Amino acid sequence: MSSATSFPEQARTLGALLRAPYRLLSERVYTCLAEKGFKEIRPAHSAVFRHISPSGSRLTTLADEAGLTKQSMAYLVDHLCKHKYLCVAPDPDDGRARLVRLTARGRALIDALLAASTAVERDVAKVMGKEQIESLRQCLTALQTALLGNAKADN
Fold first, then answer.
1. What domain count does the chain have?
2. Taking the CA of residue 47 as centre, how many other CA atoms within 13 Å lie in the half-sphere pointing to its CB?
3. Is 124 among the domain residues?
4. Contacts of 139 (CB under 8 A, 6+ apart)
5. How far apart are CA 11 and CA 86, in angstroms?
6. Which end of the chain lies in a sparser environment, N or C, as judged by fewer CB atoms within 10 Å?
7. Which CATH number fits the domain that encloses residue 48?
8. Is residue 62 one of the residues assigned to a domain?
9. Mean pLDDT of 102-117
10. 51 lies in which domain range?
């Protein structure tokens, strides 16, 4: 192993084994998005798009769900508003609050993002086989369930 390899990678921790493929998948998806005309979109923006509700979300909710500070989320939202993927409007349920909503361009991005992700998954399945991909899905679902169960048991 090279001296640049991190300790978790050297130890082949579960986190490292999950991070590396996710990073590679993400690179392919975001490269595809750039090719489709969404050049200003970066993986950091997934913190917004992964958590935004179809009916809109409050900035504080987005920040909480993404595990970011309100200021960091505001920075991402501002960037995406400038590029017309999002808009901010008054919350009809609370006049003091504001909702972050997808614009038509934002919904087009979500569609492109999901299509790119599906295409990458299809390419990977050609190499790994559909059965292995399904097995991986089942293992990841079981891992999530186990980790959620451990988190509940710890509380």
1. 1
2. 23
3. yes
4. none
5. 41
6. C
7. 1.10.10.10
8. yes
9. 97
10. 37-128
